[in-house]
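Below is how a single chain appears once it has passed through the pipeline. First comes the sequence as given, then the structure the pipeline wrote out for it. We keep one example in the README because the format questions we get most often are answered faster by looking than by reading.
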Amino acid sequence: MNQRLQRLADQIQRTLSVLIRDEINDPRLTGFVTISSVKVSPDLGYADVYVTILEPANDGGMNADAHRESLEVLKNAAGFLRTELSHTMKTRTTPRLRFHYDEITAHGNYMTNLVNEAMKKTGENQANDTENG
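Resulting structure:
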């Protein structure tokens, strides 16, 4: 991706983060939406927006199934978000937004949680061994 497209992607990411937080008031969007990355097509026709959603009720379940409804809310709001985005951008056209669940980031978070749990259990086992030994 060239530097111009990268700057545009960064601007879209920053602006969408604020718009989703402040303007989307749908009660079905229950989680905290994080935009992992944005990839803009060379012709500025589309912007693929990769999101992860931290749902408070799902005990950290980071998978696409747990967040399907929240992702649908974002997909349905894509037209509104594109219109709002066009007011802040200084480009002739505003790319169409396509939202995707970011499996890579979600999987990384899941693996980090597993490692932290394993480290905690190892520490507890070592403490028990020193007490019993």
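The chain has a mean pLDDT of 85.

See the next section for the split statistics.
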